[in-house]
Amino acid sequence: MKILLSTSLPLRPFFERLLPASPHEVELLCFEEEMPVPELLEQQLARVTGCDAILLPDGAAILGETGLRAGSIPLVLPRVHNCVALLLGGADRYRSLFERYQGGICWQTAGLAALLGSDAQEAYSCLCYLADTQLGLRDTSVEAQAAAKRYGWDFFEAETDLSLIERMLAGDWDTDAFLTVRPGEQVLPSYTRTLMEAAACR
Asked: pTM of the full predicted structure?
């Protein structure tokens, strides 16, 4: 199976190390900006040819209010809020941390110096460093701790759980953890625990 994987930059180092283990031919394409406008992303995906599926691992974060239409190629999305939830292994663990800190978490991933979050520093009370224990990514926790101290935030670490990424690359999509959007359908945000739903295009 030939797959196009279209992802945000924070996920790139994880996918680059896990791609060789995939039994499928996977082309990795990273967004040029932090998160593309859904309408423009939909236009770009509609021009894709020559593959069997398009994977969108950032989940609900790319949908906006209007969702995305599938072109001639099925779209596959994990049922996660964003790239952080994917790296935590699913929506439940992300939701638990988000609620515990009342949404005031800034996230940093192993191998990247950039913080995941808005530029509004006053919105946060802590920084969570997503620690890699499997792939040998560069440990940037010292930089993360320094950033937290500089902004007066609490600091804690959470281990990444790459099980959803591994299942995604293996083509194991026939579970409740993923949504497949067929040609002629669109994926819409559901604002429920399932995060998204597929429906016939209007």
From this structure: 0.93
